[in-house]
Design brief:
Layout: E1 2-7, H1 14-19, H2 21-27, E2 32-37, E3 50-51, E4 61-62, H3 64-75, E5 83-94, H4 97-104, E6 108-112, E7 129-132, H5 142-153, H6 164-168, E8 188-189, E9 192-193, H7 203-221
Parallel strand pairs: 1-2, 1-6, 5-6, 5-7
Antiparallel strand pairs: 3-4, 8-9
Helix pairs in contact: 4-5
The structure holds S-adenosylmethionine.
């Protein structure tokens, strides 16, 4: 998979690409990530990417010119099949695990990180998807893109140690429910004991307990998922 991320703050991705699980995925060859500076697609000495909105209003909007050149340059030579261009926006479709799985099956992803008051509406025509990571407003699309890239890349074959089983039993996994509570050593910590069943070695019974806990927790915290 090839992932392009277009941003006016490309340096924000330094730690993400050098230290994270995503860095490991790149080293393993599961994906290639290219960070593009939107200002490299400007043609004036100020490298201007924004201007005042027509009709008035606060703040500045991102201009069409640099965005069209940047996205077209990413897509140059990339077949339309298996390709998605994702515009980050609080007004977009809400990102979730199902979308992460959907994107993990594509071949080429382009993430567009907005800034200021957002994009000139015509820039939307470049995108296949307009996506939000939640009902709140951030100053830029970099953290939204990083969150989505992380969620997608960990699903790529060979990235996680446990393979497909590692993600199937997680929250929002195979059955769409929240994950059952998990415990590790020691068996008792400050008077809090690990449930007896998990120490029993009876894997069939443990599976039944986990399913029941998963349903209980989901009903309690996220009934909308049931
Ligand atoms: C300050 S926001 C613009 C908000 C826009 N004026 C609005 O009211 O919808 C600047 C940029 O941050 C990104 N952004 C902010 N919140 C986001 C969210 N919840 N999900 C995805 N991207 C977000 C988008 O790229 C957006 O263009």
């Amino acid at each position: 998979m090839t992932i392009d991320i277009i941003s006016v703050q490309p340096q924000m991705f330094r730690g993400f690409l050098e230290e994270s699980m995503v860095a490991r995925a790149v080293r393993k060859g599961a994906c290639e990530i290219r960070i593009r500076d939107l200002r490299d697609y400007t043609h004036d000495r100020w490298r201007k990417v924004d201007d005042k909105p027509y009709g008035g209003g606060p703040g500045m909007l991102m201009m069409c010119g640099p965005w069209f050149e940047a996205v077209e340059s990413c897509l140059n030579g990339s077949p339309a099949e298996g390709r998605r261009v994702i515009m980050t926006s609080p007004a977009g479709r809400r990102f979730d695990q199902r979308m992460a799985e959907e994107l993990s099956r594509e071949r080429h992803l382009v993430f567009m990180c907005g800034h200021y008051e957002g994009f000139d509406a015509r820039i939307r025509t470049l995108a296949t998807d307009e996506v939000s990571i939640g009902d709140f407003v951030m100053t830029g699309g970099e953290l939204a893109s990083a969150a989505m890239v992380d969620a997608v890349v960990r699903l790529l074959p060979g990235v996680l140690g446990g393979g497909p089983a590692a993600t199937a039993s997680e929250s929002f996994g195979r059955d769409g429910l929240l994950e059952a509570p998990q415990y590790t050593h020691p068996p008792v910590f400050r008077g809090m004991a690990v449930p007896e069943i998990l120490l029993s070695g009876d894997h069939a019974k443990i599976e039944v307990w986990r399913r029941a806990e998963s349903r209980r927790l989901t009903a309690e915290r996220r009934p909308d998922l049931i």
